[in-house]
Design goal:
Structural class: mainly alpha
Number of strands: 0
Helix content: over 70%
Radius of gyration: 59 Å
Order of helices and strands: H
Number of helices: 1
Shape: rod-shaped
Distance between the termini: 186 Å
Strand content: under 5%
C-alpha cells in the first residue's frame, strides 16, 4: 500500500488551484469586499448614531436649561404681578377708607348741625312753653 503519485494527482492539484483562483476572483474577493463594506458602514453608522445621541443629549440638556430659565422668569414675573396687585389693592383700600372717612365726617357734621338746629328749636319752644306756663300760673303776661 504505497502512495502512488501519478499525473492525475498533479491535475487534481492544478484543478484545485485553478478553481481556487477562479472562486477567489468571482466569489471570495467580492464577498470579502461586501463584508468589509458592510463592516465599514456598520462602524460608520454606529459612530453616526453615537454622535447623534450625543447631540440629542446636548439638545435635551439645553432645552432643560431653557425651560428652567423660563420657569424661573415666569415665577419672578408672577411674583412681581402679585406684588403689584397687592400694592394696588392697598392703594384702593386706602382710597376707599379715606373716602369713607370723608363721608363719615360729612355725615357727622351734618348730624351735628341738625342736632344743634333741633336744640335751638327746642330751646325756643321751651322758652315759649315756659312763658305760657308763667302766664297761666301768674295770670298775666310775664315780661
Amino acid at each position: 500500500m504505497g502512495i502512488s503519485l501519478d499525473a492525475s494527482f498533479g491535475i487534481q492539484i492544478a484543478s484545485f488551484f485553478l478553481l481556487w483562483l477562479v472562486l477567489k476572483q468571482l466569489l471570495f474577493d467580492p464577498m470579502l469586499r461586501v463584508l468589509e463594506e458592510r463592516e465599514r458602514r456598520t462602524l460608520g453608522n454606529e459612530r453616526a448614531a453615537q454622535r447623534l445621541r450625543a447631540e440629542a443629549e446636548a439638545l435635551r440638556a439645553e432645552c432643560d436649561e431653557r425651560l428652567a430659565a423660563v420657569r424661573h422668569e415666569l415665577l419672578e414675573q408672577s411674583e412681581e404681578t402679585r406684588k403689584a396687585a397687592r400694592t394696588e389693592e392697598r392703594r384702593i383700600i386706602a382710597q376707599a377708607r379715606a373716602a369713607a372717612a370723608r363721608h363719615l365726617a360729612a355725615a357727622r357734621a351734618e348730624i351735628a348741625a341738625q342736632a344743634e338746629a333741633a336744640r335751638a328749636a327746642l330751646r325756643a319752644d321751651a322758652q315759649a312753653i315756659a312763658a305760657q306756663m308763667a302766664e297761666k300760673v301768674l295770670g298775666r303776661r310775664a315780661a
